[in-house]
Design brief:
Length: about 110
């Protein structure tokens, strides 16, 4: 009985604390956002002058279209782009002969 009473009291206390802490955090975050909005000002003209792009509209269109993916990125495609190679599935094999005589022979075995 005492255990149940203690559990009930602790549950009520923790619930009230959770509500109060949540409310205090929300109020603090709102205050921060209000203060931050006045802390920074960006002049659009100054920002615009910081970036210069010497490209005509067709070049800009080409750049934009090259950035659009025709297929979604996958785990495998990202690994390939980063240079990962699965030794069980090589995409190419480089053969380096030991000498010039072997080089002339190519892939023939002697």
């Amino acid at each position: 009985m005492a255990q149940q009473a203690m559990t009930s009291v602790m549950t009520q206390v923790s619930t009230k604390l959770e509500v109060q802490i949540s409310s205090a955090l929300n109020q603090t975050m709102q205050n921060i956002m209000t203060n931050m909005s006045g802390a920074m000002h960006v002049d659009p003209e100054v920002l615009k002058s910081a970036f210069k792009l010497d490209a005509d509209p067709s070049q800009i269109a080409a750049i934009a279209s090259s950035m659009i993916r025709s297929q979604p990125a996958t785990y495998e495609s990202n690994l390939t782009k980063m240079g990962y190679a699965d030794l069980d599935k090589p995409t190419s094999i480089n053969i380096y002969p030991k000498g010039f005589c072997r080089k002339r022979e190519g892939c023939r075995h002697s």
